[in-house]
Amino acid sequence: MLRASMPEKPPTPALTRELGIFDLVLFYLAGGLSLRWIATAAAAGPSTITIWIFACLCFFVPLAACVLELSSRYPQEGGLYVWTQRAFGDFSGFIAAWTYWMSNLPYFPAVLYFGAGSALFALGKRGEHLTNNATYYMLFALGWLALITVLNILGLKQGKWLNNLCSLGVWIPVAFLLGMAAVVAMRYGSATSFTAAQLIPHAGLKNAIFWSTIFFAFGGAETGSFMGEEIKDARRTIPRALILAGTLLATFYIAGTIAMLIVLPSFTISGLNGFVSAIQLMCTKLNLGWLVAPIALFVVLNSVGGAATFLSSTSRLPFVAGIDRYLPRVFGHVHPRWRTPWVAIGAYGLAGMLCALLSQAGTTVRSAYSVLVSMSIITYFIPFAFLFASMIRLQREPAVPGTIRVPGGRPVAIGLACLGLATTLLTIVLSVIPPDEEPNKPLAIAKVIGSTLFLVGAGIAVYFASERRLRHSSEKPQP
Fold it and tell me: What residues does 231 pair with on adjacent strands?
């Protein structure tokens, strides 16, 4: 066979193991919990609490279980890329990684613009003139992306401290919210009725689409595994950190939504304006207006943490693809001094900055950015389908001694993976359906599907062009 005549796959360049379990727990919290989801959920009313529970059971638990076992079975750098490649071959591994890193690019300006808007609450009236200033939002995003990129190039020893600091943007706002809800409940009672009828989600297609959005608020459990060879004792550290952080994340989402509804009725909460606008209303109600500015700054940290964790982790996917020569070889380089995949990190950081520029650079370019967002709607879900399918396929391989398995063994592992796969496929279908306010629904559907096919097709073209080049040069790596 052709593969038998090829030289062995080159070893992964040595990386520095910097992340311990404490760092990884904070990493998961900084990137996995976005405060804007709490406001979005609360704005939809108490029935969202039930949806959070279903989302946790039908998506997050299967995802965490699959990452827990796969990261312990195969703790190499690249995580999702390695697992899919091992289960279904090089092509599937590359496409899973390609769709993941491409779909996350529009996330960077989105989450940092949320942070920029939250920062204006800290400035008070002095920041009102910046509310609609496109340059301010763009510079905010570019500045933070540049800092995140530079710190990660210099090493995880530097980059992890930004992640750890940004985790305060989770702990403190949520703790404040829970404390405020307790005070309001004792003084005034709850602003929302939590009856059995109120907790039942309303049927209908529109609500089903919203449910799927809430489901994927739990995305991010897979990110730590992308840095497997930069984590101390990754085989055991990733599963343990994931269990602890996952428990906290689910608790914070559900408890935070309940707390916000205790303080404010749902119709006063704007998911669009985000978490801080609701905090401002709460502080006004309790005559604590002076607390808005410091809480807003912690919310800014939350948005920066989301960008930092996804940039640092996702940039490892083009790194391993560069090692396998499916991207230019330079992507697989490790800096001799800093021991980081500096080219992959720098290229991904620059790509995120380009997306930020596209979002504000003019009408024509704004349209291009809109296309990028459309591409990410479905492509964000494709890698999860690969992940769950890989979990099912890889159950045929024996686990090495010391592997942390899903409780219940192979039957439970396959059952959870099937549940996660079914949820993911359903969400892909729902993500194609345009919102009610969309004036031209057929065009919107065609745009989402067409742009997705274009992005996936681009990945397929890159893969086969690289495979052809490797075959001709007899450098194609073995799996």
Answer: 19
Alpha carbons 38 and 174: distance in angstroms, whole number: 10
- Reported as half-sphere exposure (CB side, CA atoms, 13 A), residue 256 has a value of 27
> Which domains does the chain possess?
15-473 (1.20.1740.10)
pLDDT of residue 432: 80
Distance CA 282, CA 260 (A): 9
Write the CB contacts of 109 (distance below 8 Å, at least 6 apart in sequence). Answer: 141, 352, 355, 356, 359
Please enumerate in sequence order all residues whose Cβ is within 8 A of that of 272, keeping only pairs 6 or more positions apart, or say none.
none
Q: What does the pLDDT read at residue 292?
A: 86
Q: What distance in Å separates the CA atoms of residue 169 and residue 307, rounded to the nearest whole number?
A: 13
- How many angstroms from the chain centroid is the CA of residue 185? 33
**β-strand partners of 192:** none
Terminal Cα distance for the chain, rounded: 14
- What the block records as the tokens of 268 is 């006063």
| Closest to 327 measured CA to CA, from 335, 337, 319 | 319
Positions of the chain with pLDDT under 50: 1-8, 363-364, 476
> What are the DSSP calls for 291-305, one per residue?
GHHHHHHHHHHHHHH
pLDDT of residue 247: 92
CA contacts within 13 A on the Cβ side of 457: 6
Report the helix count and the strand count for the chain, using DSSP H and E.
21, 0
The DSSP letter of residue 439 is S
State whether the Cα torsion 324-326-476-393 is positive or negative.
Answer: positive
Burial zone of 364 (CB within 10 Å; 0-12 exposed, 13-18 middle, 19+ buried)? exposed
Residues 40, 275: Cα–Cα separation, whole Å:
8
pTM of the model: 0.87
Within 10 A of 219 (CB to CB), how many other CB atoms are there? 20
pLDDT the model gives residue 459: 92
Coil, helix or strand for 13? coil
Rounded CA gap, 465 and 449, in Å?
24
| Alpha helix ranges (H) inside 8-106 | 21-32, 35-43, 47-55, 61-73, 80-88, 90-103
Ramachandran sector of residue 334 (left: φ over 0; alpha: ψ -120 to 50; beta: rest) = beta
* CB 348 within 8 Å of CB 311: yes
The pLDDT value recorded for residue 382 is 92
Structure tokens belonging to residue 117: 């808007």
188: which 2 tokens?
A: 């005034």
Q: Which amino acid is at 467?
A: E
Please tell me the total number of residues recorded for the chain in this structure. Answer: 479
Nearest-angstrom CA–CA distance, 302 and 297: 9
CA–CA separation, 67 and 71 (whole Å): 6
